[in-house]
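Narrative progress, year one. The postdoctoral researcher (J.K.) led the effort to move from monomer predictions toward full complexes, under supervision of the PI. The following entry was the first complex the group processed end to end, covering 478 residues in total.
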Amino acid sequence: MNAPHIHLLLNHFPTVGFSIGLGLFLVALFAKSGELKRASFVIFFMTAALTITTYVSGSDAQEAMKDSPGVSASLIAAHESAALVAFAFMQATGFFSWLGLWIFRRVSRVPNWNVAVVLILAVVTFGLMARAANIGGEILHPEIQSNRTNPAVQAEVEAEQPLAKSWGGFVENHSWVWPTAETLHFIGLSMLFGVVLTVDLRMLGIGKNLLSFAALYQLLPLGMLGFTVNLATGMVFFVATPQQYTGFLFFLKMMLVVVGAVNVLYFMLLEEPWTVGEGHDASITTKLVAASAIIIWIAVLFCGHMLPFYGNSF
Amino acid sequence: MDFLLKIQQSGFCQWIRESESIFSYSGILLLHTIGMGFVVGINACIDLRILGFAPALRLKGMEKFLPVLWLGFWVNAITGAMLLAIDIVNKLANADFYVKMAFIALAIINLRMLKSHVFGDPSIDKIPASGKAKILAVTSLMFWIGAITSGRLLAYVGPGSGAK
């Protein structure tokens, strides 16, 4: 199991996995089923989370492959740029799917505007992912290579400054970008920690008599806002200098984010937390999941913080 | 100046700077960052609740999280003192350091004012938050954002930061 292998394995989530979600979503729309919509939103959300690991693993794959014979650096750059655009739309799809799931728990249906937004974003994401995957395939699948007669690929390959690389140039030439992104990253993590601590410490018993889960549930979008800020600023760092984020420690951080995503779904989908009213004790399972959330997000912070000491950064 | 140099060159401070152990510089800074998450996070949730987010949440209940906030605060006071000690000559010559300390002092004073004005108010959760409470919530957020920003910039500005 090496870096290119891992990247190829993870590629199946934003392509095959996402397609299954989209197919299920279309069935849900046709059958007018709220439950199926919910299920497809779960698939979109988890696929978006997993796609973060897919995207970052591309950097490790590139490091391993760049000097191999027959591997074109310009095709890799074209693939990276196409993947970046597709990634952005994938995360937007995941965000609005999460929002739909959050709203569903409160009003037992997904609002029409939410359905429309997710549908449009999902279809666009599907197209962009297919394009990114296609260019990626051309890197080292000689049997499918069109010898650059595909105009879209040709345009990307000939681009003076592929999108991802030009972003790196911008960050390098404007010294305010990095410290600003770092500061926002800290603000975002504080926001996320605040919501994680408030919700999960209550599940563990603090403030039991005065706080119900239903009331705390209203805080979740603020936590997601904190996470979104960190995803965006994280992308600023990663796209500017991907070579700093190769290796195990950063990848572990991204995998822990996926575990965090599963964790939040527990609180959004299951009945048990919803029954925790004022004065009520949460079940042992809920307490374990709540405690693990605190550990997961501290572990994410640990991995990020330790990058300059144990990773490949700086 | 001699006294400050003595602190900075003490065996303990040398160990923090030079040891590869996770309990030295990297671990101390890690605890400082986690503490920041605890303090700013909990305070921000209280502030945003006062400003109207998550309106079903009972403010009186959120008071129960203040001990966790103070735990984070003291972890940061102690780790902060260590981080200051290992580079004290440069830090005390760095204007940004004083800016950060000022923001933290303001934020803590602000928090105490919030505690007495909001949590000490017998009509809490019975009537909407007062204008004064909302102003205190906004300034609280501003002071913490100021502390985070000036703290992050310590790596970029002033003597010993690596700035050219």
